[in-house]
Amino acid sequence: MALTAAELYRALHRGSPGDLAFYRQACAGAYHILELGCGYGRLIEALAEPGRSLTGLDRDENLLNLARQTQLEGANYRWLQQDMCPLDLEQRFDRILLAFNTFYCLPQDKKLPLLQGIHRHLKPGGTFVMDAYAVEKSETVGYEQFSPPAPIVTLDLPEGALDVYEESFEDYEQKTIQVTYTFRREGRVVTQQSIEHAYWYSDEFHPALASCGFKEIHQFEGFGTTPTQVVLTARR
To answer: What is the pTM of this model?
Structure first.
């Protein structure tokens, strides 16, 4: 039986090396945890422990259904199918997480409103934690760039191996990138998936968080093994 779009997404997008260990440490001692854009529940599953309250929010119901299948006994889960912006959950949290480039899934005009909403939803002293790939200012600002299809990985699946090709179109002026993944089996196209990101430069995060009222803002270069990621923590 062919894999669903959500199952293909889960097979391809597995996070960054070292990210789960980092988020476990960042959530030590936290009881109420919210992950925005939780997808199929990879991070929430890693954070689950008896007595902890975990809320996962995503707009894709099919991904949330995959997340429900991985629930561990003894942990308290809540799955919400909705957009992350505007954020209005009538609850405050010890930690709010925005992992694995999810921040870039929002259009530019919704990024600051989301950060403001996150600040409102944190308990006093609560911490916001996020990561996204690092983008530095380029001399090619104002230009566009197309990267032709190139093989990136072979997925060994029960249904048979799939070769995945990636192509992208980047608009430096708008700070957007459209990425298309083509899944091939024995040279034949099985399906395609596309993701559009609106990114920030690495030096934009700190002032934006400060303008939303966050304190003790710390910015790191990745998880040690993946220095291409921007990792941030900020406290209410």
So the answer is: 0.95
The 144-155 sheet, strands edge to edge: 144-155, 162-171, 176-185, 188-198
pLDDT one-digit tens code per residue, 137-174: 875 666 779 999 999 999 999 989 999 999 999 998 89
Q: Looking at residue 57, what DSSP letter applies?
A: E
Q: What is the DSSP letter of 187?
A: T
> 100-120: per-residue pLDDT in tens?
999 999 999 999 999 999 999
Determine the length of the chain.
Answer: 236
Please state, in angstroms and rounded to a whole number, the distance separating the CA atoms of residues 165 and 155. Answer: 11
Query: Any residues with CB less than 8 A from the CB of 57 and at least 6 apart, and which?
Result: 34, 35, 36, 37, 38, 79, 80, 81, 82, 84, 89
The DSSP element (H or E) to which 171 belongs, if any, is strand 162-171
Place of tokens 């990101």: 197
Contacts of 155-160 with CB under 8 Å at 24 or more apart are 155/11, 155/12, 155/183, 157/3, 157/11, 159/1, 159/2, 159/3, 160/185
Check the CA dihedral 153-157-161-163 and report its sign: negative
74, 98 Cβ separation under 8 angstroms: no
Residue 213, amino acid: G
